[in-house]
Write a structure and sequence with these properties.
This protein is an alpha/beta fold. It is built from 16 helices and 22 strands. Helix 5 links the parallel strand 13 and strand 14.
Length: 557
Protein backbone atom coordinates (compact mmCIF):
# COMPACT_ATOMS: atom_id res chain seq x y z
CA UNK A 1 0.00 0.00 0.00
CA UNK A 2 1.38 3.35 -1.03
CA UNK A 3 0.24 6.95 -1.06
CA UNK A 4 -0.45 6.60 -4.79
CA UNK A 5 -2.71 3.61 -4.31
CA UNK A 6 -4.62 5.37 -1.57
CA UNK A 7 -5.84 8.02 -4.01
CA UNK A 8 -5.74 6.39 -7.44
CA UNK A 9 -7.82 3.27 -6.76
CA UNK A 10 -11.18 5.04 -7.02
CA UNK A 11 -13.17 3.22 -9.71
CA UNK A 12 -14.95 5.24 -12.38
CA UNK A 13 -18.10 3.26 -13.22
CA UNK A 14 -15.94 0.19 -13.67
CA UNK A 15 -17.15 -3.36 -13.37
CA UNK A 16 -13.96 -4.64 -11.81
CA UNK A 17 -10.85 -3.15 -10.23
CA UNK A 18 -7.16 -3.91 -9.91
CA UNK A 19 -6.04 -2.22 -6.71
CA UNK A 20 -2.25 -2.40 -7.09
CA UNK A 21 -0.12 -2.94 -10.23
CA UNK A 22 1.41 -6.09 -8.71
CA UNK A 23 -1.92 -7.78 -7.92
CA UNK A 24 -2.86 -11.05 -9.62
CA UNK A 25 -6.54 -10.79 -8.71
CA UNK A 26 -9.29 -8.34 -9.63
CA UNK A 27 -12.20 -7.18 -7.44
CA UNK A 28 -15.71 -7.37 -8.88
CA UNK A 29 -17.49 -4.05 -8.35
CA UNK A 30 -20.77 -5.50 -9.62
CA UNK A 31 -22.18 -9.00 -10.08
CA UNK A 32 -20.37 -10.47 -13.09
CA UNK A 33 -21.85 -13.46 -14.99
CA UNK A 34 -20.01 -16.60 -15.99
CA UNK A 35 -18.76 -16.36 -19.57
CA UNK A 36 -18.26 -12.61 -19.41
CA UNK A 37 -15.17 -11.53 -21.41
CA UNK A 38 -12.55 -9.70 -19.36
CA UNK A 39 -9.99 -7.40 -20.91
CA UNK A 40 -7.45 -5.87 -18.58
CA UNK A 41 -3.95 -4.50 -19.16
CA UNK A 42 -3.60 -6.41 -22.41
CA UNK A 43 -4.94 -9.64 -20.91
CA UNK A 44 -8.09 -11.17 -22.39
CA UNK A 45 -9.94 -14.10 -20.82
CA UNK A 46 -13.42 -15.28 -19.88
CA UNK A 47 -14.95 -15.65 -16.44
CA UNK A 48 -15.36 -19.33 -15.66
CA UNK A 49 -18.07 -18.82 -13.04
CA UNK A 50 -20.34 -16.15 -11.59
CA UNK A 51 -18.45 -13.56 -9.56
CA UNK A 52 -20.56 -11.69 -7.03
CA UNK A 53 -19.80 -8.05 -6.30
CA UNK A 54 -17.02 -7.63 -3.68
CA UNK A 55 -15.40 -10.98 -4.55
CA UNK A 56 -12.08 -11.59 -6.33
CA UNK A 57 -11.11 -13.55 -9.42
CA UNK A 58 -7.72 -14.58 -10.77
CA UNK A 59 -6.18 -12.82 -13.78
CA UNK A 60 -3.63 -15.53 -14.52
CA UNK A 61 -3.33 -19.30 -14.29
CA UNK A 62 -2.10 -20.32 -10.85
CA UNK A 63 -0.31 -23.42 -9.59
CA UNK A 64 -0.47 -24.97 -6.16
CA UNK A 65 1.40 -22.88 -3.55
CA UNK A 66 1.62 -19.81 -5.79
CA UNK A 67 1.44 -16.45 -4.04
CA UNK A 68 -1.82 -14.51 -4.15
CA UNK A 69 -1.06 -10.78 -4.28
CA UNK A 70 -3.52 -8.03 -3.41
CA UNK A 71 -2.86 -4.43 -2.36
CA UNK A 72 0.65 -5.25 -3.58
CA UNK A 73 1.14 -7.63 -0.63
CA UNK A 74 1.08 -11.38 -0.05
CA UNK A 75 -2.42 -12.26 1.14
CA UNK A 76 -2.67 -15.99 0.49
CA UNK A 77 -1.39 -19.20 -1.09
CA UNK A 78 -3.16 -21.13 -3.83
CA UNK A 79 -4.14 -24.64 -2.73
CA UNK A 80 -4.65 -26.22 -6.17
CA UNK A 81 -4.09 -25.44 -9.84
CA UNK A 82 -6.46 -22.65 -10.89
CA UNK A 83 -7.36 -21.18 -14.28
CA UNK A 84 -7.60 -17.47 -14.80
CA UNK A 85 -11.16 -16.25 -14.58
CA UNK A 86 -11.82 -18.44 -11.53
CA UNK A 87 -13.40 -17.20 -8.32
CA UNK A 88 -11.20 -16.94 -5.21
CA UNK A 89 -12.68 -19.13 -2.44
CA UNK A 90 -11.74 -20.44 0.98
CA UNK A 91 -11.13 -23.80 -0.70
CA UNK A 92 -8.63 -22.69 -3.34
CA UNK A 93 -6.92 -19.96 -1.29
CA UNK A 94 -5.57 -20.04 2.25
CA UNK A 95 -4.17 -17.26 4.38
CA UNK A 96 -0.51 -16.33 4.01
CA UNK A 97 1.38 -13.20 4.95
CA UNK A 98 4.92 -12.03 4.33
CA UNK A 99 7.68 -12.05 6.92
CA UNK A 100 8.44 -8.69 8.50
CA UNK A 101 11.39 -7.02 10.22
CA UNK A 102 12.84 -3.60 10.86
CA UNK A 103 14.71 -2.49 7.74
CA UNK A 104 15.75 1.03 8.64
CA UNK A 105 13.68 2.58 5.88
CA UNK A 106 13.80 6.37 5.75
CA UNK A 107 10.11 6.97 5.13
CA UNK A 108 9.30 10.27 3.43
CA UNK A 109 5.80 11.68 3.64
CA UNK A 110 4.09 14.81 2.44
CA UNK A 111 0.81 15.75 4.05
CA UNK A 112 -2.14 16.42 1.73
CA UNK A 113 -3.22 20.01 1.13
CA UNK A 114 -4.94 21.11 4.36
CA UNK A 115 -5.26 24.81 3.48
CA UNK A 116 -9.09 24.76 3.51
CA UNK A 117 -9.06 23.39 7.08
CA UNK A 118 -6.12 25.26 8.64
CA UNK A 119 -8.21 28.08 10.10
CA UNK A 120 -11.13 25.85 11.08
CA UNK A 121 -12.10 25.13 14.67
CA UNK A 122 -14.59 22.95 16.51
CA UNK A 123 -16.55 23.84 19.62
CA UNK A 124 -15.40 21.52 22.38
CA UNK A 125 -15.05 21.28 26.13
CA UNK A 126 -11.65 22.50 27.26
CA UNK A 127 -10.12 20.70 30.24
CA UNK A 128 -7.57 22.23 32.59
CA UNK A 129 -4.78 19.97 31.31
CA UNK A 130 -5.19 21.39 27.78
CA UNK A 131 -7.11 18.50 26.23
CA UNK A 132 -10.44 19.18 24.55
CA UNK A 133 -13.50 16.96 24.71
CA UNK A 134 -16.02 16.57 21.92
CA UNK A 135 -18.71 15.81 24.51
CA UNK A 136 -19.35 16.46 28.20
CA UNK A 137 -20.43 13.30 30.03
CA UNK A 138 -20.95 12.31 33.63
CA UNK A 139 -19.64 8.77 34.10
CA UNK A 140 -20.71 6.01 36.50
CA UNK A 141 -18.12 3.28 37.08
CA UNK A 142 -18.57 0.01 39.03
CA UNK A 143 -15.39 -1.54 40.40
CA UNK A 144 -17.07 -4.95 40.21
CA UNK A 145 -19.95 -6.63 38.37
CA UNK A 146 -21.87 -6.91 41.67
CA UNK A 147 -22.81 -3.23 41.31
CA UNK A 148 -24.32 -3.55 37.81
CA UNK A 149 -27.87 -3.83 39.12
CA UNK A 150 -27.48 -0.69 41.21
CA UNK A 151 -26.14 1.12 38.15
CA UNK A 152 -29.14 -0.04 36.11
CA UNK A 153 -31.54 1.35 38.69
CA UNK A 154 -29.69 4.66 38.86
CA UNK A 155 -29.53 4.84 35.06
CA UNK A 156 -33.27 4.38 34.68
CA UNK A 157 -34.01 7.04 37.29
CA UNK A 158 -31.57 9.67 36.04
CA UNK A 159 -32.21 9.13 32.34
CA UNK A 160 -35.98 9.40 32.66
CA UNK A 161 -36.05 12.36 35.03
CA UNK A 162 -33.18 14.40 33.59
CA UNK A 163 -34.14 13.98 29.94
CA UNK A 164 -31.56 11.44 28.71
CA UNK A 165 -33.91 8.52 27.98
CA UNK A 166 -33.65 7.39 24.34
CA UNK A 167 -37.26 6.48 23.52
CA UNK A 168 -40.38 4.92 24.98
CA UNK A 169 -41.68 3.56 21.65
CA UNK A 170 -40.86 -0.04 22.54
CA UNK A 171 -42.64 0.32 25.86
CA UNK A 172 -45.63 1.71 23.94
CA UNK A 173 -45.42 -1.17 21.48
CA UNK A 174 -45.39 -3.76 24.26
CA UNK A 175 -48.34 -2.06 25.95
CA UNK A 176 -50.37 -2.11 22.73
CA UNK A 177 -49.47 -5.75 21.97
CA UNK A 178 -50.57 -6.70 25.49
CA UNK A 179 -53.82 -4.81 25.13
CA UNK A 180 -54.53 -6.37 21.74
CA UNK A 181 -53.90 -9.85 23.16
CA UNK A 182 -56.25 -9.17 26.09
CA UNK A 183 -58.92 -8.12 23.60
CA UNK A 184 -58.51 -11.37 21.66
CA UNK A 185 -57.06 -9.75 18.57
CA UNK A 186 -54.57 -11.41 16.20
CA UNK A 187 -51.26 -10.15 17.58
CA UNK A 188 -49.33 -11.67 14.65
CA UNK A 189 -50.98 -9.08 12.40
CA UNK A 190 -50.76 -6.31 14.96
CA UNK A 191 -50.39 -2.74 13.65
CA UNK A 192 -48.43 -0.44 15.94
CA UNK A 193 -49.91 3.02 16.43
CA UNK A 194 -47.31 5.07 18.29
CA UNK A 195 -48.63 7.74 20.61
CA UNK A 196 -46.95 11.07 19.93
CA UNK A 197 -45.16 12.08 23.10
CA UNK A 198 -42.87 15.04 23.48
CA UNK A 199 -39.38 14.02 24.60
CA UNK A 200 -38.53 15.17 28.09
CA UNK A 201 -36.36 18.26 27.84
CA UNK A 202 -32.80 17.77 29.04
CA UNK A 203 -32.35 19.56 32.36
CA UNK A 204 -28.56 19.99 32.10
CA UNK A 205 -27.99 21.78 28.77
CA UNK A 206 -24.20 21.42 28.87
CA UNK A 207 -24.05 17.77 29.95
CA UNK A 208 -24.40 15.61 26.84
CA UNK A 209 -25.15 12.39 28.67
CA UNK A 210 -24.90 10.25 31.80
CA UNK A 211 -22.95 7.11 30.98
CA UNK A 212 -22.58 3.75 32.75
CA UNK A 213 -19.69 1.28 32.35
CA UNK A 214 -21.40 -2.00 33.24
CA UNK A 215 -18.92 -4.90 32.98
CA UNK A 216 -18.35 -8.47 34.17
CA UNK A 217 -15.00 -8.01 35.89
CA UNK A 218 -13.42 -6.76 39.10
CA UNK A 219 -13.44 -10.07 40.96
CA UNK A 220 -13.49 -13.83 40.43
CA UNK A 221 -10.88 -13.75 37.67
CA UNK A 222 -7.12 -13.41 37.86
CA UNK A 223 -5.49 -10.52 39.69
CA UNK A 224 -4.03 -9.55 36.32
CA UNK A 225 -7.56 -9.16 34.98
CA UNK A 226 -8.43 -6.86 37.88
CA UNK A 227 -5.26 -4.82 37.33
CA UNK A 228 -5.99 -4.44 33.61
CA UNK A 229 -9.58 -3.46 34.36
CA UNK A 230 -8.37 -0.87 36.88
CA UNK A 231 -6.12 0.75 34.29
CA UNK A 232 -8.98 0.75 31.78
CA UNK A 233 -11.51 2.32 34.17
CA UNK A 234 -8.96 4.94 35.20
CA UNK A 235 -8.44 5.79 31.53
CA UNK A 236 -12.17 6.35 31.11
CA UNK A 237 -12.39 8.51 34.23
CA UNK A 238 -9.53 10.60 32.83
CA UNK A 239 -11.03 10.82 29.33
CA UNK A 240 -11.37 14.36 27.96
CA UNK A 241 -15.05 13.73 27.16
CA UNK A 242 -15.74 12.97 30.83
CA UNK A 243 -16.55 15.86 33.19
CA UNK A 244 -17.04 13.93 36.43
CA UNK A 245 -17.21 10.41 37.86
CA UNK A 246 -19.26 8.38 40.33
CA UNK A 247 -17.69 5.10 41.46
CA UNK A 248 -19.77 2.30 42.99
CA UNK A 249 -17.90 -0.44 44.86
CA UNK A 250 -19.08 -3.49 46.77
CA UNK A 251 -16.06 -3.57 49.08
CA UNK A 252 -14.62 -7.10 49.07
CA UNK A 253 -13.66 -7.44 45.38
CA UNK A 254 -10.19 -7.78 43.85
CA UNK A 255 -10.35 -4.34 42.28
CA UNK A 256 -10.50 -2.22 45.41
CA UNK A 257 -11.54 1.42 45.15
CA UNK A 258 -8.11 2.43 46.44
CA UNK A 259 -6.48 0.51 43.58
CA UNK A 260 -8.62 2.28 41.01
CA UNK A 261 -7.83 5.68 42.52
CA UNK A 262 -4.14 4.82 42.50
CA UNK A 263 -4.37 3.86 38.82
CA UNK A 264 -6.02 7.18 38.17
CA UNK A 265 -3.26 9.04 40.03
CA UNK A 266 -0.60 7.19 38.01
CA UNK A 267 -2.30 8.08 34.76
CA UNK A 268 -2.90 11.72 35.65
CA UNK A 269 -1.26 13.08 38.83
CA UNK A 270 -3.16 16.34 38.29
CA UNK A 271 -6.61 14.77 37.95
CA UNK A 272 -9.05 17.39 39.24
CA UNK A 273 -12.51 16.37 38.05
CA UNK A 274 -15.26 15.83 40.64
CA UNK A 275 -15.13 12.21 41.77
CA UNK A 276 -17.53 10.42 44.13
CA UNK A 277 -16.94 6.97 45.69
CA UNK A 278 -19.64 4.82 47.33
CA UNK A 279 -18.90 1.49 49.09
CA UNK A 280 -21.99 -0.70 49.47
CA UNK A 281 -20.62 -2.78 52.35
CA UNK A 282 -19.98 0.42 54.32
CA UNK A 283 -23.49 1.77 53.70
CA UNK A 284 -26.48 0.96 55.91
CA UNK A 285 -28.56 -0.35 52.99
CA UNK A 286 -28.64 -0.71 49.24
CA UNK A 287 -31.46 1.80 49.15
CA UNK A 288 -29.38 4.35 51.01
CA UNK A 289 -26.43 3.74 48.67
CA UNK A 290 -28.60 4.53 45.64
CA UNK A 291 -30.19 7.58 47.30
CA UNK A 292 -26.76 8.96 48.23
CA UNK A 293 -25.28 8.30 44.80
CA UNK A 294 -28.17 10.02 43.01
CA UNK A 295 -28.26 13.05 45.32
CA UNK A 296 -24.53 13.74 45.43
CA UNK A 297 -24.10 13.11 41.71
CA UNK A 298 -26.92 15.53 40.94
CA UNK A 299 -25.29 18.27 43.03
CA UNK A 300 -21.96 17.79 41.25
CA UNK A 301 -23.69 17.83 37.86
CA UNK A 302 -25.11 21.25 38.71
CA UNK A 303 -21.52 22.52 38.82
CA UNK A 304 -20.34 20.56 35.77
CA UNK A 305 -23.24 22.00 33.77
CA UNK A 306 -21.53 25.40 33.99
CA UNK A 307 -18.85 24.22 31.54
CA UNK A 308 -19.63 25.40 28.00
CA UNK A 309 -18.29 24.62 24.54
CA UNK A 310 -15.48 26.85 23.26
CA UNK A 311 -13.64 27.06 19.92
CA UNK A 312 -10.60 24.78 19.69
CA UNK A 313 -8.16 24.02 16.84
CA UNK A 314 -8.57 20.81 14.86
CA UNK A 315 -5.17 19.77 16.21
CA UNK A 316 -6.98 19.06 19.49
CA UNK A 317 -8.93 16.19 17.91
CA UNK A 318 -7.95 12.59 18.61
CA UNK A 319 -9.75 10.26 16.20
CA UNK A 320 -9.80 6.48 16.43
CA UNK A 321 -10.31 4.59 13.16
CA UNK A 322 -12.04 1.21 13.23
CA UNK A 323 -13.77 -1.23 10.89
CA UNK A 324 -16.32 -3.91 11.69
CA UNK A 325 -18.75 -6.02 9.71
CA UNK A 326 -16.25 -5.52 6.89
CA UNK A 327 -16.89 -6.52 3.29
CA UNK A 328 -15.05 -6.75 -0.01
CA UNK A 329 -15.53 -3.02 -0.60
CA UNK A 330 -14.09 -1.91 2.76
CA UNK A 331 -10.54 -1.68 1.46
CA UNK A 332 -11.46 0.31 -1.66
CA UNK A 333 -14.08 2.81 -0.46
CA UNK A 334 -14.68 3.54 3.24
CA UNK A 335 -11.26 2.56 4.60
CA UNK A 336 -9.13 4.57 2.15
CA UNK A 337 -11.56 7.51 2.46
CA UNK A 338 -11.14 7.43 6.24
CA UNK A 339 -7.42 7.03 5.60
CA UNK A 340 -7.41 10.29 3.68
CA UNK A 341 -9.28 11.93 6.59
CA UNK A 342 -6.55 10.53 8.86
CA UNK A 343 -3.85 12.11 6.71
CA UNK A 344 -5.67 15.45 6.79
CA UNK A 345 -5.89 15.30 10.58
CA UNK A 346 -2.22 14.44 10.92
CA UNK A 347 -1.37 17.28 8.55
CA UNK A 348 -3.34 19.58 10.86
CA UNK A 349 -1.45 18.42 13.95
CA UNK A 350 -4.13 16.08 15.31
CA UNK A 351 -3.90 12.52 16.61
CA UNK A 352 -5.10 9.35 14.85
CA UNK A 353 -5.33 5.92 16.50
CA UNK A 354 -5.20 2.69 14.44
CA UNK A 355 -5.74 -0.47 16.49
CA UNK A 356 -7.01 -4.05 15.92
CA UNK A 357 -3.63 -5.81 15.81
CA UNK A 358 -5.07 -9.13 14.48
CA UNK A 359 -6.32 -7.04 11.54
CA UNK A 360 -2.87 -5.69 10.72
CA UNK A 361 -1.63 -9.18 9.85
CA UNK A 362 -0.13 -8.90 6.38
CA UNK A 363 0.30 -5.12 6.60
CA UNK A 364 3.12 -5.27 9.17
CA UNK A 365 6.06 -4.52 6.89
CA UNK A 366 4.44 -1.46 5.37
CA UNK A 367 3.65 -0.11 8.86
CA UNK A 368 7.13 -0.93 10.15
CA UNK A 369 8.67 0.95 7.24
CA UNK A 370 6.58 3.96 8.22
CA UNK A 371 7.76 3.99 11.85
CA UNK A 372 9.70 7.10 12.81
CA UNK A 373 12.46 5.19 14.59
CA UNK A 374 13.67 1.69 15.46
CA UNK A 375 12.26 1.74 19.00
CA UNK A 376 8.74 2.40 17.68
CA UNK A 377 9.14 -0.33 15.05
CA UNK A 378 10.49 -2.88 17.51
CA UNK A 379 7.66 -2.27 19.95
CA UNK A 380 5.12 -2.92 17.20
CA UNK A 381 6.97 -6.10 16.18
CA UNK A 382 7.08 -7.32 19.78
CA UNK A 383 3.39 -6.70 20.46
CA UNK A 384 2.30 -8.28 17.17
CA UNK A 385 4.41 -11.42 17.62
CA UNK A 386 3.62 -11.97 21.29
CA UNK A 387 -0.10 -11.50 20.66
CA UNK A 388 -0.16 -13.97 17.74
CA UNK A 389 1.95 -16.47 19.68
CA UNK A 390 -0.55 -16.34 22.54
CA UNK A 391 -3.36 -17.04 20.08
CA UNK A 392 -1.41 -19.92 18.50
CA UNK A 393 -0.88 -21.55 21.90
CA UNK A 394 -4.61 -22.07 22.30
CA UNK A 395 -5.08 -23.41 18.79
CA UNK A 396 -6.04 -20.17 17.10
CA UNK A 397 -4.10 -17.38 15.40
CA UNK A 398 -4.57 -14.19 13.44
CA UNK A 399 -5.35 -16.28 10.34
CA UNK A 400 -8.66 -17.30 11.96
CA UNK A 401 -9.90 -13.72 12.33
CA UNK A 402 -12.33 -13.35 9.39
CA UNK A 403 -15.96 -13.96 10.39
CA UNK A 404 -18.50 -15.88 8.28
CA UNK A 405 -19.96 -12.52 7.22
CA UNK A 406 -16.53 -11.25 6.14
CA UNK A 407 -15.93 -14.36 4.04
CA UNK A 408 -19.40 -14.34 2.51
CA UNK A 409 -18.77 -10.80 1.27
CA UNK A 410 -15.35 -11.37 -0.23
CA UNK A 411 -12.74 -11.27 2.55
CA UNK A 412 -11.35 -14.75 2.01
CA UNK A 413 -8.17 -14.54 4.13
CA UNK A 414 -7.10 -12.51 7.16
CA UNK A 415 -4.36 -10.86 5.12
CA UNK A 416 -6.91 -9.61 2.58
CA UNK A 417 -9.03 -8.27 5.40
CA UNK A 418 -6.01 -6.76 7.17
CA UNK A 419 -4.33 -5.06 4.23
CA UNK A 420 -7.66 -3.41 3.43
CA UNK A 421 -8.27 -2.56 7.08
CA UNK A 422 -4.87 -0.89 7.47
CA UNK A 423 -5.85 1.72 4.89
CA UNK A 424 -7.92 3.49 7.56
CA UNK A 425 -4.62 4.71 8.99
CA UNK A 426 -3.74 6.63 5.84
CA UNK A 427 -0.13 7.03 4.76
CA UNK A 428 1.45 9.21 7.46
CA UNK A 429 4.43 8.10 9.59
CA UNK A 430 3.79 5.93 12.66
CA UNK A 431 4.91 8.13 15.56
CA UNK A 432 4.10 5.79 18.46
CA UNK A 433 2.94 2.29 19.40
CA UNK A 434 0.74 1.99 22.48
CA UNK A 435 -0.10 -1.03 24.55
CA UNK A 436 -3.67 -1.49 25.77
CA UNK A 437 -4.93 1.56 27.81
CA UNK A 438 -1.75 3.60 27.26
CA UNK A 439 -2.59 7.24 26.42
CA UNK A 440 -1.80 8.84 23.09
CA UNK A 441 0.46 11.81 23.71
CA UNK A 442 2.13 12.47 20.35
CA UNK A 443 0.51 14.26 17.40
CA UNK A 444 0.30 11.96 14.39
CA UNK A 445 -0.60 8.32 13.79
CA UNK A 446 -0.26 5.88 16.70
CA UNK A 447 -0.87 2.12 16.65
CA UNK A 448 -2.86 0.80 19.64
CA UNK A 449 -2.73 -2.85 20.68
CA UNK A 450 -6.31 -4.14 20.92
CA UNK A 451 -8.23 -7.15 19.61
CA UNK A 452 -10.09 -6.86 16.32
CA UNK A 453 -13.37 -7.55 18.14
CA UNK A 454 -15.48 -4.47 17.48
CA UNK A 455 -16.34 -3.50 21.03
CA UNK A 456 -13.06 -4.55 22.64
CA UNK A 457 -11.27 -2.43 20.03
CA UNK A 458 -13.45 0.67 20.41
CA UNK A 459 -13.22 0.28 24.19
CA UNK A 460 -9.42 0.31 23.86
CA UNK A 461 -9.32 3.28 21.49
CA UNK A 462 -11.34 5.41 23.89
CA UNK A 463 -9.00 4.36 26.70
CA UNK A 464 -6.07 5.72 24.70
CA UNK A 465 -7.83 9.05 24.32
CA UNK A 466 -9.93 8.95 21.13
CA UNK A 467 -12.54 11.71 21.32
CA UNK A 468 -14.26 10.56 18.12
CA UNK A 469 -14.26 7.16 16.40
CA UNK A 470 -14.72 6.67 12.65
CA UNK A 471 -16.14 3.18 12.25
CA UNK A 472 -16.38 1.74 8.72
CA UNK A 473 -18.71 -1.13 7.92
CA UNK A 474 -19.82 -3.02 4.83
CA UNK A 475 -22.34 -5.37 6.43
CA UNK A 476 -23.68 -3.05 9.13
CA UNK A 477 -23.00 -3.02 12.86
CA UNK A 478 -24.52 -0.81 15.57
CA UNK A 479 -21.37 -0.61 17.73
CA UNK A 480 -20.92 2.53 19.82
CA UNK A 481 -19.01 3.65 22.91
CA UNK A 482 -20.13 5.22 26.20
CA UNK A 483 -17.75 8.21 26.17
CA UNK A 484 -16.56 8.49 22.56
CA UNK A 485 -19.08 9.42 19.84
CA UNK A 486 -18.82 6.73 17.15
CA UNK A 487 -19.50 7.69 13.53
CA UNK A 488 -20.63 4.90 11.17
CA UNK A 489 -19.24 4.98 7.63
CA UNK A 490 -20.83 2.63 5.07
CA UNK A 491 -18.70 1.10 2.32
CA UNK A 492 -21.64 0.90 -0.09
CA UNK A 493 -24.87 2.78 -0.75
CA UNK A 494 -27.05 -0.31 -0.52
CA UNK A 495 -26.08 -0.73 3.13
CA UNK A 496 -26.42 3.00 3.82
CA UNK A 497 -30.03 2.89 2.62
CA UNK A 498 -30.92 -0.47 4.12
CA UNK A 499 -29.59 0.40 7.60
CA UNK A 500 -30.06 4.15 7.53
CA UNK A 501 -30.97 4.10 11.22
CA UNK A 502 -27.37 3.29 12.19
CA UNK A 503 -25.29 4.71 9.29
CA UNK A 504 -24.01 8.31 9.31
CA UNK A 505 -21.89 8.55 6.14
CA UNK A 506 -22.16 6.76 2.79
CA UNK A 507 -18.95 6.24 0.78
CA UNK A 508 -20.71 4.19 -1.91
CA UNK A 509 -20.14 7.06 -4.34
CA UNK A 510 -16.54 5.88 -4.62
CA UNK A 511 -17.66 2.48 -5.87
CA UNK A 512 -20.06 4.12 -8.34
CA UNK A 513 -17.34 6.45 -9.64
CA UNK A 514 -19.26 9.51 -8.44
CA UNK A 515 -16.68 10.67 -5.89
CA UNK A 516 -12.95 10.38 -5.38
CA UNK A 517 -11.34 9.12 -2.21
CA UNK A 518 -10.03 12.62 -1.54
CA UNK A 519 -13.47 14.22 -1.89
CA UNK A 520 -14.99 11.65 0.41
CA UNK A 521 -12.17 12.05 2.93
CA UNK A 522 -12.80 15.78 3.13
CA UNK A 523 -16.53 15.19 3.58
CA UNK A 524 -15.80 12.84 6.46
CA UNK A 525 -13.60 15.46 8.13
CA UNK A 526 -16.39 18.03 7.73
CA UNK A 527 -18.74 15.60 9.48
CA UNK A 528 -16.18 15.08 12.26
CA UNK A 529 -15.96 18.83 12.86
CA UNK A 530 -19.74 19.08 13.21
CA UNK A 531 -19.93 16.00 15.44
CA UNK A 532 -17.09 17.30 17.62
CA UNK A 533 -19.01 20.56 18.01
CA UNK A 534 -22.28 18.91 18.97
CA UNK A 535 -23.95 20.19 15.79
CA UNK A 536 -24.56 16.65 14.52
CA UNK A 537 -25.25 13.72 16.83
CA UNK A 538 -24.05 10.37 15.37
CA UNK A 539 -26.67 7.63 15.17
CA UNK A 540 -24.92 5.42 17.73
CA UNK A 541 -25.19 8.25 20.28
CA UNK A 542 -28.84 8.94 19.45
CA UNK A 543 -29.60 5.23 19.90
CA UNK A 544 -27.72 5.03 23.21
CA UNK A 545 -25.39 2.35 21.80
CA UNK A 546 -22.96 2.43 24.74
CA UNK A 547 -20.93 -0.74 24.18
CA UNK A 548 -18.11 -1.46 26.62
CA UNK A 549 -16.12 -4.71 26.82
CA UNK A 550 -12.80 -4.79 28.71
CA UNK A 551 -10.07 -6.97 27.19
CA UNK A 552 -8.83 -9.48 29.73
CA UNK A 553 -5.57 -9.82 27.78
CA UNK A 554 -6.34 -13.44 27.10
CA UNK A 555 -6.97 -14.52 23.54
CA UNK A 556 -9.52 -12.39 21.74
CA UNK A 557 -9.42 -11.81 17.98
Amino acid sequence: MTATIMTDAAPNMQQYLKIHPDDNVLVALRDLPSGMPISFNGEAFTLLENINAKHKFFVQDMNTDDDVIMYGALVGKVQTNIQKGSLMTTTNTKHAAGEYAYRGVNYQWSAPDVSKFESRTFNGYKRKDGRVGTANYWLFIPTVFCENRNLDIIKEALHKELGYAVSDKYQQYTKQVLQAYKEGKNVERFDFNPVSTQAKERFFKNIDGIKFLNHTGGCGGTRQDAATLGALLAAYADHPNVAGVTILSLGCQHLQSEMLLEDLKKRNPDFDKPLLVFEQQLTESEEQLIFDAIRETFLEMVEVNKIEREPAPLSALCVGVKCGGSDGFSGISANPAVGYTSDLLVGLGGKVLLAEFPELCGAEQELIDRCTNEDVANRFIHLMRSYNELAMKVGSGFHMNPSPGNIKDGLITDAIKSTGAARKGGTSPVVDVLDYTEPATKPGLSLVCTPGNDVEATTGKAASGATLILFTTGLGTPTGNPVCPTIKVATNSKLAKHMADIIDIDTGGIIEGEKTIEEMGEEILEYCIKAASGEIIPKSVLLGQDDFIPWKRGVSL
